[in-house]
Amino acid sequence: MKKILALYLPQYHRIKENDEWWGDGYTEWIAVKNAKKYFKTHQVPKIPLDNNYYDLSEKSAETWRWQANLSQKYGIYGFAIYHYWFGKKKMLLEKPVEILLENRDIKLNYCFVWANESWSRTWYDGNSSRLLIKQEYCDRQDWLDHFNYFLPFFKDERYIKVDGKPLLHIYKSLYIEEFDEMISCWNDAALEHGFPGLYIVVGNTTLGIDNRVSSIDAYYNFEPGFSQKYHSSLFRKIFRKATILSKVIFNSLSKTKHLERKEQIDYIYRNILKNKPIINKKKVFLGTFPSWDNTPRRGYHGTCFVGESPEKFYKSLKCIYDMSCDDSFIYINAWNEWGEGCYLEPDVINKFGYLDAVRKVADNEK
């Protein structure tokens, strides 16, 4: 059976670090509400249906219940939730998933995606020179501390497993020099706690493909970045770079703020179809996305794909669904990346259109 997973962002509650870095009371919704239009048909700000600017720190877990019911209704098997561990037991944005763990009555399949990147201002304004928090990988004791944090979640019957192995994603494994040693440590710890090991899935991203196959069970394609970088034609790459450079120079000389990166979503959807379901004799779990516009975060330095629609998204999802091997996961980026214009949750323009597209594809399994 093929199972659709949606990537999930937990940054919809206040934390002291975001208050310090971005301003008092900052959550993802602040960037979304403050989005600026950069061309006539630019559809911002994105507004959730019924003004549902939810707070994931609510102890009642009502948002989790709503999301669980909605995702199940529309054919999504579960959420792959971003997890931020920076080493030495330093975490960010962990509160929502801990609330989910506490509320065992919520019927929601889930797993973790370790988003193993340093945080810098590039996330918000394109300036990577200021480091906010450094990603570190430390030593064996830190690996065990990390595993022990995961353990209560792994034991949760809702946590997604493959042949009894907890499913754990690592977004950019190529950053981890001692990757094989770390995975071996984690597998040993999993065996000690009664699991047959971990099922490790690493991201195919703009960094490329990790070939340390002895520690990898499968790959997942993080879209649109992976296919845009590695499956665009040479002509398209040259054209895109030249277009961006000309806009950057124009903005610099004229002191203006015209959007520097805009292109048709159709190109990316075509590139996604060039992916293969097997790499290095390992499964590749294919992915796609409903739309993309990260200008709420990065302003005129951002990227906006135009021409998006629920109908085009349906065709893309249906194609990769049909291309995928049996018993594969299919990834959608994302359930709720509102600051990147990349979400399935209902909004005032498309209503439930993107969710309807998912359900239409998922119904093929029945």
How would you describe the overall organization of this protein?
- With 366 residues, the chain is an alpha/beta fold.
- The protein has a single domain (3-365), classed as Glycosidases (TIM Barrel).
- It has 13 helices and 18 strands.
- It has helices at residues 16-22, 28-33, 62-73, 95-102, 122-125, 140-154, 179-192, 225-230, 234-254, 265-272, 295-298, 310-323, 353-362; strands spanning 3-8, 78-85, 91-92, 109-114, 119-120, 131-133, 161-162, 165-170, 199-204, 218-221, 261-264, 278-279, 282-285, 287-288, 303-306, 329-332, 336-337, 342-343.
- The strands form four sheets. Strands 1, 2, 3, 4, 7, 8, 9, 10, 12, 13, 14 and 16 form a twelve-stranded mixed β-sheet that branches. Strands 5-6 form a two-stranded antiparallel sheet. It has a two-stranded parallel sheet with strand order 11-15.
- The radius of gyration is 20 Å and the shape is globular.
- The termini are close together.
- The model has no long low-confidence stretch (mean pLDDT 96).
